[in-house]
Amino acid sequence: MKASGWWPPGRDRARNVPVCGWLCTVNGTGSGAPRSGVSSSESGGAGPTPGDRPAPEPGVGSGSYSDPMSEPPAIERASDAPAVLVRSVHRTFEPDTAPVRALRGADLTVEHGEFVALTGPSGSGKSTLLQVVAGLDRPDSGSVRLAGTALDDLSDDELAVLRRRHIGFVFQFFRLLDSMTALENVALAAMIAGAGRAAAEARARELLDLLGLLDKSGSSPVTLSGGQRQRLAIARALANRPTVLLADEPTGALDSAGAAGILELFQRLNAAGQTILLVTHSEEVAAGAGRRVAMRDGRLEPVAVGAGDR
Ligand SMILES: Nc1ncnc2c1ncn2[C@@H]1O[C@H](COP(=O)(O)OP(=O)(O)O)[C@@H](O)[C@H]1O
Ligand SMILES: [Mg+2]
């Protein structure tokens, strides 16, 4: 589906009514999380997920958020609960052919402030796990908690709220809206949450500046390099200061220089407090994360510490 302009279908331009339609899925703000049958790697993502927390005050971007890199994400830390807690999660897809057991008792904990790389062979369930963590797909059994809140028994609407609050999602192929400018792509994320246009654009400018894209504010994503597009997608995913930034092979479509730039960006964000869970096939990227875990046959296994030791 294509957007036909800055305003997505259904938005009242004059009144700035919250968006719905397909963008609600893209941005994790809709009432319906994709369920079964959604390709785990290609389903709509919780991209910018601006949330239900109060909209930024006017003037944001010019003052209080002037250095988002140094400001930890806005998270509710009522307890010491991990950012992400996955326990005994099973997910079986039942296409017309034989059932596919994508997740078979996956367990994963990501603490606040961690940068975790998730590796594993193709088909081992990495994307499915990310979708489940994002609340974009539901497990058949097991439990997923984001910052202490269980997703398990939530309605689709409640799940969307949690997703907006906690998740930013970055995809391998960016999923930007080419008919919008770079600034609009990021600002839309904040506006979906109900932020006023001026505050949303201020936040977008701030993020573009942070990611070295300010001079591309008025450009369409199609005019950007792959690395620049992915930085723009990351800016969008950060628009609402998610508890956790999820990224599914975010360097997979980039050349090695582009990939190195994105890895460095993730490292900077993590150093500033951003929790990150990233799927990658790249040894270099995985080695640059703070911790590595591997998936095999739908389960996680820690990479052996000191595997090279004798
Ligand atoms: N929507 C779906 N319908 C049917 N099978 C699926 C679906 N999504 C994923 N799978 C299957 O589940 C398994 C795990 O997929 P995935 O999580 O995408 O693995 P990875 O990301 O590690 O490559 C694969 O065998 C894949 O074909
Ligand atoms: Mg995948």
Automatic annotation (TrEMBL):
Membrane-spanning residues: none
What residue spans carry the region label Disordered?
28-75
Q: Name one Pfam family in it.
A: ABC_tran
Record carries keyword Transport: yes
Task: Give the record's keywords alphabetically.
Answer: ATP-binding, Nucleotide-binding, Transport
Please verify whether the record's keywords include Transmembrane. Answer: no
Q: Which domain of life is it from?
A: Bacteria
Q: Which residues form the ABC transporter domain?
A: 84-307
Question: Matching PROSITE patterns, A to Z?
Answer: ABC_TRANSPORTER_1, ABC_TRANSPORTER_2
Q: What is this protein called?
A: ABC transporter ATP-binding protein
Q: Which organism is it from?
A: Nakamurella flava
Lineage, broadest ranks:
Bacteria, Bacillati, Actinomycetota, Actinomycetes, Nakamurellales
